Amino acid sequence: MNKEESVIMKKKLRSAEWFGSNDKMGFVHRSWLRNQGYPDDHFRGKPVIGICNTWSELTPCNGHLRDFAEIVKRGVLEAGGFPLEFPVMSLGETIMRPTTMLFRNLASMDVEESIRANPIDGVVLLTGCDKTTPSTLMGACSVDLPTIVVPGGPMLTGRFKGEVIGSGSFNWMIKHKQKTKELSEEDLLEAEVCAARSAGHCNTMGTASTMATMVEALGLTLPGFSSIPAVDSRKKVLAQLSGRRIVEMVNEDLTLSKILTRKAFENSIVVNAAVGGSTNLLIHLIAIARRIGIKLNLEDFDRLGSKIPLLVNLMPSGKYLMEDFFYAGGLPVVLKELKDLLHHDALTVNGKSLVENSSKAVCTNNDVIASIEKPFQTEAGIAVLKGNLCENGAVIKPSAASPRLMKHKGKAIVFESMEDYHARIDDPDLDIDENSVIVLKGVGPKGYPGMPEVGNVDLPEKLIQKGVKDMVRISDGRMSGTAGGTVVLHISPESSVGGTLALVRNGDLIELDVEKRKLHLDVSDDELKKRKAEWQPPELHTERGYVRLYLDHVEQADKGADLDVLIGKSGSVVTRDLH
């Protein structure tokens, strides 16, 4: 008997509660699985590894994960495990309406209950598109079994007419290029194919790449996994090795809660700042922390991350794409540069620390990854704003904003909803100029519903024609991680629950001062009280189904926009059998 077999025999596997007895229920549990041809030894002490697959043809970024599941299974079998793949709700950022964020919490419930209700000892999360990473991780945290993440990886670099284009970031240039006649109808069709030319998620440091980076920084992937392109053979190698490693993690009882400590979350915040990651990280990381039982708030992101230097020159904050990042050395190089700012005793899935895992990393292109002594920006990260317009906070990403607008005062041009915005933004008679502040209401967690990525709304056509490329825009919504601009997001409380944002009127002066972390509506308290007394809450979007449940239970952005009934964890114990 080898050491591994000895460990398995000594450890009581969770799956043994289903497969380990020779009574009626043991017969039932084993017998029906037999129709797939599994031999006796699969039910006798092998750790059952659940492969949680977010593959879907309706989620283009995850379209290759069906194949990756088979690669992971190879690794599980090699290590003496019993792999069982299961599907969960998949969230396609580019397809689903009104927004995948509305369904993130629903998908997390699917993951949580699928894991808890089945004979699973360890979990592999196959992720890719934006919300598939936080939703699966949130669900897994609420069960707290040994878990490893296999990120699907970014697309290859897009090329259009001799220029590099980033899937995601290019989208936000389309209106400007059409209105200035830089992009014909034929060009647009060609660019569609050029921008998304391989399997994988967006190839900028958008939300998908940010979330993949986040899970590696949290210690939940094998070293160097997050930046490898989806179609690179090295992705498959690490997927197979992840299958092997999850079996070892089960034998070691290395659960999520042993990895996701307060120090792990702090490491992730620092890393996100250094790579110029998405503002969406805040809302997802807070939700994940609250599931696993770690206290995390907006102020932590400002305190820990806002003064971190920007080390990665990727769109939307820079000019390169994820493929370039990988070739330059990827996240391990960034971790090595940050070693003095990271917690060295935060554990990762391979049993070592981030600092240990990255100690031999070598940078091959300093125009893509800078040294900490010569960063691309001395302070990056995400700034958390406070003021009478955002009592519980708002966020802005300075590395993607215009320096000239970081301190700005202008009159509000108010849009009560996205429909109002679309109806009026290009009206030539709209009283708006480049010094105005675009205010968008009704796009928060409850307001849309679901808090869509609309905060970086396009500028008015007449200002685009004048050459204006950026304006201050504020809302209670989110922004795609692939986008840039001077955009204030996640205003809390949102307008639809009566936050001060709901009271803003056309012509009001709004002051933004990022250095002082200030967002102020220049209206007296007495006038605001008067307006609040006149304010009427919007009608519910629906009376039934999941959306009604969501509206009744969703929390505000500063708390992660999770459902209040999902905070914390129920664990893995199921006390009642099915008969």
CATH architectural type of the domain at 383-539 = 3-Layer(bba) Sandwich
- Average the pLDDT over all residues and give the rounded result: 94
Give me the CATH fold name of the domain at 383-539.
Glucose Oxidase, domain 1
Largest sheet: 8 strands, mixed
Which CATH C-level class of the domain at 383-539 is it? Alpha Beta
Kindly provide the radius of gyration, computed on alpha-carbon positions and rounded to a whole number of angstroms.
Answer: 24 Å
Number of strands: 14
State the distance separating the first and last CA atoms.
37 Å
What's the helical proportion of residues?
Answer: 25-40%
Shape: globular
Question: Total number of helical segments?
Answer: 21
In CATH, what is the homologous superfamily of the domain at 383-539? IlvD/EDD C-terminal domain-like
By secondary-structure content and strand pairing, the structural class works out as alpha/beta
**Unreliable sequence segments:** none
In terms of DSSP E residues, the strand content is 5-15%
Strands across the major sheet, in which order?
7-8-12-11-10-9-13-14
Question: Which properties best describe this structure?
Answer:
579 residues; alpha/beta; Glucose Oxidase, domain 1; 8-stranded mixed sheet; 4-stranded parallel sheet; 21 helices; 14 strands
Structure description:
The two termini are 37 Å apart. An eight-stranded mixed sheet has the order 7-8-12-11-10-9-13-14. The protein has a four-stranded parallel sheet with strand order 2-1-3-4, sandwiched between helices. A two-stranded antiparallel ribbon has the order 5-6. Helix 4 crosses helix 10 and helix 12 packs across helix 14. A hairpin with a 2-residue loop joins strand 5 and strand 6. The chain is of the alpha/beta class and 579 residues long. It contains 21 helices and 14 strands. It has a domain of 157 residues: Glucose Oxidase, domain 1 (3-Layer(bba) Sandwich), CATH 3.50.30.
